[in-house]
Amino acid sequence: MKPTILLIFLMFLLFPFAFGDLKVGFYSSSCPRAELIVRQVVERSFNQDRSMTAALLRMHFHDCFVRGCDASILIDSKKGNESEKAARANLTVRGYNLIDEIKRILENACPSTVSCADIISLATRDSVVLAGGPSYNVPTGRRDGLVSTVNDVHLPGPESSISQTLQAFKSKGMTLEEMVTLLGAHTVGFAHCSFIGKRLGSNDSSMDPNLRKRLVQWCGVEGKDPLVFLDQNTSFVFDHQFYNQILLGRGVLTIDQNLALDSISKGVVTGFARNGENFRERFVDAVVKLGNVDVLVGNQGEIRKNCRVFNS
């Protein structure tokens, strides 16, 4: 091997992240217990509140879809800067205290080592497994972003059309199948009644009449905004029943029901409804790919000491 080629080869082995790659087991030397610590904290939280899976999946999605998976969603607003948290789409995002707890323990074990961005990805994976979903390896090595502003938040909404939603996913390098797969995470999802009030008040004939009747009654309590299961069958289990539900007209959100109605996506929905194992396999591929969107690595960004504020 020529000296120049040998040098490049050795540099690739020594500095694998100079090329923007993430790596499974990134913290195996610098913080060997990192993934175990994340898993233990998530498990404690899940045992008290099984809706934590939905909360973390939503946080992960909302973070990656703005500036990439850089934990910018975790930053608190301050005078002179409204952060991503202040966006309407993020006002009901939950799970911040769980991330804080994980970060506090990791900072005691391995100061300034594990990024908040990696914590989100690892915690999301662990919560999916606890809900009965597939286990998968999470490539790590992300760095935390240095920008978080409300004006950057442009996410598909609960009433978005399939074409609008697909355009948003394509802008992040995701395909139609990956879009349908990731929206399948609504199998453990919830929504406030305020998100479906417009649909319940319309003449939308695509919703199952019995479901409409139940939801009108449930959401009709004055002065309250209760939560509604997005999967009316196995609400806390990460499985493929969501797709069967929307094929029966039991999609709660307009965007969910549109998946089963639009010719663009209906074929993928039907396939996942028939084959739960295929959904699980495709979900692993899609969520790992989502976790790689526009990540910061190497010397980019920072490793926050407190996930809610920038270091400087």
TrEMBL record:
Pfam families: peroxidase (PF00141)
Binding site for heme b: H186
Gene Ontology cellular-component annotations: extracellular region; plant-type cell wall
Binding positions for Ca(2+) 2 per the UniProt entry: T187, D231, T234, D239
Reaction catalyzed: 2 a phenolic donor + H2O2 = 2 a phenolic radical donor + 2 H2O
GO terms, biological process: hydrogen peroxide catabolic process; response to oxidative stress; response to stress
Residues the record marks as active site: H62 (proton acceptor)
InterPro entries listed in its UniProt record: Haem_peroxidase, Haem_peroxidase_sf, Peroxidase_pln, Peroxidases_AS, Peroxidases_heam-ligand_BS, Secretory_peroxidase
Source organism, top-level taxon: Eukaryota
Main localization, broad class: secreted
Entry's EC annotation: 1.11.1.7
Keywords: Calcium, Disulfide bond, Heme, Hydrogen peroxide, Iron, Metal-binding, Oxidoreductase, Peroxidase, Secreted, Signal
Compartments, as annotated in UniProt: Secreted
Binding site for substrate: P156
PROSITE patterns: PEROXIDASE_1, PEROXIDASE_2, PEROXIDASE_4
Family under the similarity heading: Belongs to the peroxidase family. Classical plant (class III) peroxidase subfamily.
Task performed by this protein: Removal of H(2)O(2), oxidation of toxic reductants, biosynthesis and degradation of lignin, suberization, auxin catabolism, response to environmental stresses such as wounding, pathogen attack and oxidative stress. These functions might be dependent on each isozyme/isoform in each plant tissue.
Protein name in UniProt: Peroxidase
Organism of this sequence: Medicago truncatula (Barrel medic)
